[in-house]
Amino acid sequence: MAKQSYRIIALPGDGIGPEVVGSALVVLDAVKELFHVDFEVEEIACGGHYYAEHETEWPEGSFEKCESADAILLGAVGHEIDGKPVFTKPGKPYPEPQLAGFAQVIGNRKKLDLYANVRPVKLYPGVKHKIHGNLVQVWDPDKVDYVVIRENTEDAYTGEVETIEGGRVTPIRITRAATERVTRYAFNLARRRNRQKKVTCVDKSNIIGAHRFFRDVFREVGEKEFPDLTLDYAYVDAFCQWQIRSPEWFDVVVGPNLVGDIVSDNGATTAGGLGLAVGGNIGDEHGMFEPIHGSAPKHAGKDKANPLAAILAMQMMLDWLAARYADDRLAGAALKVEAAVAAVLKEGKTLTYDLIGEERASKCSEVGAAVAEKLRLML
Ligand code: IPM
Ligand code: MN
Asked: I want to staple 255 with a disulfide (CB 3.0 to 4.6 A). Which of 22, 259, 291, 357 is the partner?
């Protein structure tokens, strides 16, 4: 049932995170006003810069707040001091150093059981690509529209590491339970999209035994429960070149965690770059939405970064909340926010440097304001 008010935890994080999340929240404010939905947003400082000051990645009780929120909006994590990334110290609170800020990304994904990482690869009309320093249109917008579903809890991301003589070993773990639920998610999505009704399993099963198991479970679930869909298979190395050469082949793509990490960035190349790429970390009870770019320390504090990925992440959050709470206002808002972003892209005037070059570039905050303004004009 639709709620009176939705509780959102915003985790701006490091670098350009606070700027892009700030722009997404400006658009969310417009949604509040125009669609008469209330959002109670709490921002929690976190990430590497927070660790550098406090020796903990966020204030105590922050995870519990994420757990009880209706949705989480994440910026980016990763902080540098004198050009060096900030790592945690052993014992505080991890057994060995890791990049500070992982509590938000990897921790939340695991602890909130956000098993499907949903990463659309969709090229909006008007978007150009920077090739050899020039802005050109390479891909046809009608031909780039698929969704990568990345398994989000295991594969090479278990955090396990064993020291052996002369080196280290990190396992690749694939379980039936995690594979069944993520492949089911992908198959159901292909049905809902109702386009090619095709799901491509991407893995390295020709060499990695655990990936062979992923592929077997994919086949089993698909053949048994989704006879109306086409099952398709690709090895990740070959898939990377097809993504660039023939993106129109794909509809829904599913793969193990590390494979999904790589192919989603690669796919972003054909859809305007990381400044436009979005990920929804989705489980049965929780959702966390984020731009898939990093914290880009060298651009931080300049009001220069592209906020559209963060705005589209917020849009995905609205869409997810709409389905979860059967809230038509949010479903309408999600459609309109996407249309407003598409309109700003098509107009090609108020965009950041990555999309129109340094000379004509608008600021991050100006792009956020332009989307909010478009939204107001549409209603
Ligand atoms: C992503 C990022 C993360 C990942 C990093 C920051 C751990 O690259 O969300 O894609 O590898 O999952
Ligand atoms: Mn990544």
From this structure: 259
Single out the catalytic residue among 261, 303, 319, 327. Answer: 261
Number of DSSP helices (H) and strands (E) in the chain, helices first: 13, 18
Phi and psi at 50, nearest 5°, equal -65, -40
How many angstroms separate the CA atoms of 340 and 350, rounded?
Answer: 12
Q: What's the confidence (pLDDT) of residue 93?
A: 72
**Cβ(341) – ligand 1 distance below 6 Å:** no
What is the C-alpha separation between 330 and 16, in angstroms, rounded? 27
Pocket test for ligand 1, best of 105, 158, 262 (most atoms within 8 A of CB): 105
Catalytic residue among 29, 38, 237, 284: 237
Q: Within 10 Å of residue 88's Cβ, how many Cβ atoms?
A: 22
Instruction: Report the C-alpha gap between 170 and 312 in whole angstroms.
Output: 34
Residue 130's pLDDT is what? 87
Helix (H/G/I), strand (E/B), else coil: 318: helix
Question: Tokens at residue 208, please?
Answer: 């990695």
CB environment 55-75: b (16+ within 10 A), e (fewer): ebbbeeebbebbeebbbbbbb
Tokens describing residue 109: 């994904």
303, 294 contact by CB (below 8 A): no
| Per-block mean pLDDT, blocks of 10 residues, the chain (379 long) | 96 98 98 97 97 95 98 97 93 82 92 98 96 93 98 95 95 98 98 98 98 98 98 98 98 98 97 96 98 96 98 98 98 98 98 96 98 96
